[in-house]
Write a structure and sequence with these properties.
The chain is an alpha+beta fold. It has 8 helices and 10 strands. An 8-stranded mixed β-sheet has the order 1-2-10-9-5-6-7-8. A two-stranded parallel ribbon has the order 3-4. A hairpin with a 2-residue loop joins strand 7 and strand 8. Helix 4 packs across helix 7.
């Protein structure tokens, strides 16, 4: 008899990574029901992984403070026209309905920044830019777009725990990709640098999540239902 798929998220510990050296801690939260089925997948909580440490280090920059409140100009960025425009847009969005905030941020970042692979921008295969780097260079790859949208929404008042950076496989393009997922009442919205239109995750059947990173700092691995069944059978 085949084991049934477990609807609850299971926590597994992976080998120690760079996370152990970090001096800050962020709260861990259980998977929300909608995120546990993100893009039709099943998720497994993971800890002490290099990618989790990388994400938590980025979160520790608290980049939303650059977008809302006093701007510390150690890098000479406060007068950058893109940052000025972002701050004005965030001021406009604060207090608006979540769906309107999500749509506006997705369109704003897509229209004001240019896609460029990390190899073209930094001369390396993979690099997660800080928000200040992304603004100063006015370009970045899909992860940089998703991270900038995350910080804009946090600055606009959206709870970080309701968002995930999702690294996935596009089965049509046959390429890895990254998007931002935002949980609303009853559905998950996907912000994508490839489209100004925000779509619900269930409409994107060609996107298969590999791992996701929560605004709380938690990390999740994702499997498609068939993969989950095979894993449970062993």
């Amino acid at each position: 008899m085949e084991p049934a798929l477990a609807p609850a998220v299971e926590a597994v510990a992976l080998p120690d990574g760079a996370h152990a050296a970090l001096k800050f801690e962020l709260p861990r939260i259980p998977a929300e029901p909608h995120f546990s089925n993100l893009l039709g997948s099943r998720s497994i909580s993971v800890t002490n992984t290099p990618v989790e440490a990388r994400w938590r280090l980025l979160l520790s920059e608290r980049a939303h403070l650059t977008l809302f409140g006093a701007c510390e100009d150690e890098a000479g960025i406060c007068d950058d026209r893109r940052l000025v425009a972002m701050r004005k847009e965030i001021e406009r969005l604060r207090g608006m309905p979540l769906a309107e905030q999500v749509a506006a941020v997705n369109t704003f970042v897509n229209r004001n920044f240019r896609y460029a692979a990390d190899q073209q921008t930094y001369g390396v295969g993979d690099r997660w830019a800080s928000l200040r780097e992304f603004i100063a260079l006015a370009q970045g790859d899909c992860e940089d777009f998703a991270i900038a949208k995350f910080w804009m929404l946090v600055a606009a008042g959206v709870e970080p725990e309701t968002m995930r950076l999702v690294v996935l496989r596009d089965t049509v393009m046959r390429a890895d990709h990254a998007v931002l997922a935002v949980q609303t009442a009853g559905e998950v919205l996907i912000l994508d640098n490839r489209s100004h239109q925000v779509r619900v995750d269930r409409a994107l059947r060609h996107y298969q999540p590999i791992y996701s990173l929560a605004g709380s700092g938690a990390a999740w691995l994702h499997m498609q239902p068939a993969q989950t069944l095979a894993a449970n059978a062993h």
